[in-house]
Amino acid sequence: MRLWVFETFCRNDDVFNNDIIIKRANKVRVPTYIKEENYNIINIDDIFTSISICNNLESGDTNGLYEIYFFGSLFEEYMICGMYDEKNEISDPCMIVAKCIHTGKEILLYDGAKYGYNPMFCDEINLEDIKKRPLSKLEIPNSKIEMDFAYNIDYDEEKEDFEFDEGDFTETINGEKIFFEEVKSNGFDYIKITAIDELDTKRVICELELA
């Protein structure tokens, strides 16, 4: 049976606490690099997770508008993808960050070097080579951020295909240790990031198949 959850606030304590309970009780799959206080659930089902990004302010209000910064290349005006390195003949993975217009807090939306099935288990890169990826501002209006993730891989069923140690850790293709529960949350095979400005104009700024 599919479970649908709708939330509209980030700060209200009752809603906020209930949201956390729902997330934990139903084991909602959201990438672990996005902290619980920085997202609201829009809907979930057996495969898809949709969230909106939020940031609580000291005043008790909630910020929903962000500037977008990225490393990568643009196509179709504002779609972000990896940047081709002609010298090494490889594509350096993109990185996308939302910056709160009130506090300057930065929230990682996606790092193509570390998250998603292919980056974790297929695309071999040297993490040291991409530590310094300068970010540029995406020239769009301040926007709300919605994110969609798809989880078509049943990691519980396919766990025996991976090598886990006694502590339930495995190693990504680039040598990082990761816990099994993190594999299930971070090993999504599709991501879409949508920016929605104050005029309700929607811009898909990233959409990637990752398996």
Describe this structure in words.
β1 (39-44) and β2 form a beta hairpin. This protein is mostly beta strands and 211 residues long. The protein is globular. It contains 4 helices and 17 strands.
Summarize this, please?
By secondary structure, the chain is mainly beta. Helix content is 14%, strand content 37%. It has helices at residues 13-25, 117-121, 155-158, 180-186, and strands at 39-44, 48-53, 55-56, 62-63, 66-71, 73-75, 79-81, 83-85, 90-92, 95-100, 106-111, 136-137, 143-150, 169-171, 177-179, 190-197, 202-209.
Please report the total strand number as a whole number: 17
The total count of helices amounts to 4
SSE arrangement, N to C: HEEEEEEEEEEEHEEHEEHEE
Strand order of the largest sheet: 1-2-13-16-17
Can you tell me the residue ranges where pLDDT is under 50 for at least 5 consecutive residues? 1-18, 20-26
Separation of the first and last Cα atoms:
26 Å
Q: The biggest beta sheet, please?
A: 5 strands, antiparallel
Shape: globular
| SS content category | mainly beta
Helix content: 10-25%
Mean pLDDT: 85
